Amino acid sequence: MKALILKDFYVIWKQMRTFIVVILLLAMMNSAYYMVFLVVWCSMLPYTAMAYDERSHWNQLAAMMPYSKRDIVLSKYVLGWLCMTAAGLLCLVIQAAMGCFFENVVSVSVLLTSLCVGVISLDIALPAVLRFGVERGRMIFMVMIFGVAIGTGIVLDMSDTLPSISLPVMALLPLAAVIATAVSLPLSMKLYEVN
Question: How many Å is the Cα radius of gyration of the chain?
Fold first, then answer.
């Protein structure tokens, strides 16, 4: 599976160079919203890798190689998890460095919340893309990202005005991320078999 992740990394490296510059610039913004946005944005990288795979008909080549369908699907999830974690940690390091100059820095709890939101986004997007293909799955993906952005904005606003309500919502996010992954991963493997 390591080779599959490296293949995806090499395929999207040109886009990731621009991505890293954007992450560095947005990570300097002292806002929880930007961290959530960046982590959810990084959850789209497996989607990008799948678009390149579909365009080059890589799935036909993969069928002739000694990779199981489980490894191929799981590699997309692992790529997403690695990219989200790297972006979140990079934001946290930059925010910690900026903490020397500013008082209000993004906390570890915001990082964990953004990782949970990113994992849930990935868990919704990958089965949709596997079922409908990259082009048709794009609309579902856009609607989902729009919903995540609205939901994140509402939760972040609630945390400012009603911390007693937003705390249970934040506490349930890790459980929701685990449940979403437990449902999404087998579903994706099943949908990959159909294609």
Answer: 17
Residue 79 CB coordination number (10 Å): 25
**pLDDT value at residue 155:** 66
The dihedrals phi and psi of 74, each to the nearest 5 degrees, come to -60, -30
Q: Please, what is the Cα angle at 27 between 26 and 28, to 5 degrees?
A: 90
CA-CA-CA-CA torsion for 50, 51, 55, 58, nearest 10 degrees?
A: -10
Contact 180/123 with Cβ under 8 angstroms?
yes
How far is residue 132's CA from residue 5's CA, in Å, rounded to a whole number?
Answer: 23
Its sign, for the CA torsion 45, 50, 56, 58, is positive
pTM: 0.81
Q: How far apart are CA 109 and CA 161, in angstroms?
A: 18
Average of per-residue pLDDT across 165-169? 58
Which tens digit of pLDDT belongs to each residue from 112-162? 888 888 898 889 888 888 888 887 777 777 777 777 667 766 666 665 554
24-32: which pairs have CB atoms within 8 A and are 24 or more residues apart?
24/90, 24/94, 26/91, 27/90, 27/91, 27/94, 27/95, 28/94, 28/98, 30/95, 30/98, 30/102, 30/104, 30/105, 30/106, 31/106, 32/106, 32/110, 32/113, 32/114, 32/156
